[in-house]
Specification:
Strand content: under 5%
Helix content: 55-70%
Number of domains: 1
CATH class: Mainly Alpha
Structural class: mainly alpha
Shape: globular
Distance between the termini: 9 Å
Strand order of the largest sheet: 1-2
Largest sheet: 2 strands, antiparallel
Order of helices and strands: HEEHHHHHHH
Number of strands: 2
Number of helices: 8
Length: 174
């Protein structure tokens, strides 16, 4: 079965949760994983607290597809890996998510998943399998988070997120 954006978004939204305004989080006010700055840029409207509280999955779906899923070539990545890269794009940035994949598969690290990266993904999977690539990507995420100076505050949540996304991604390979 091919897993698509429609399958991946609910997983990411579960990880992102609802409205948060944690002063320790540099993202600031966030709802459904969308920061106020991102929402203002996307919508062209001021992202007041009231506006942020009014976000719904239906409102944020087009943004997630255009700014995250499509930018990491989610429809072109293999099942399972597409979820992992999409989730990290949301949580860590599109370019960082792409570069992490490129580093693992030995592609040029330009931060954009294109034909060259996809060829390298295929070659890696031919040797290590889909589960090998999902596991390698998940381990790279864990290493990244452990090196973050905010790990003492957010680390448990980040590692739980990676574990859940990895579990779902591996189930997509079955």
């Amino acid at each position: 079965m091919t897993h698509t954006f429609a399958d991946a978004l609910p997983v990411v939204l579960t990880e992102e949760g609802g409205f948060v305004d944690d002063p320790r989080d540099p993202g600031g006010t966030t709802d459904l994983g969308i920061t106020a700055a991102v929402w203002a840029s996307w919508s062209g409207e001021p992202a007041t607290e009231a506006v942020m509280h009014s976000l719904t999955p239906e409102k944020v779906t087009p943004l997630y597809k255009a700014w995250f899923w499509d930018k990491v070539a989610g429809e072109k990545l293999p099942d399972g890996l597409n979820l992992c890269v999409f989730d990290f794009a949301v949580n860590g940035g599109v370019s960082r998510a792409a570069k992490m994949l490129q580093q693992i598969v030995g592609a040029s690290q330009d931060g954009m998943i294109g034909p060259g990266t996809l060829v390298q993904v295929g070659a890696y999977m031919a040797l290590q399998g889909g589960d090998g690539l999902v596991s390698a990507y998940s381990e790279a995420r864990r290493t990244f988070y452990r090196a973050d100076p905010r790990f003492s505050v957010f680390g448990t949540g980040w590692l739980n997120r990676v574990a859940h996304v990895e579990q779902v991604a591996l189930s997509w390979l079955a």
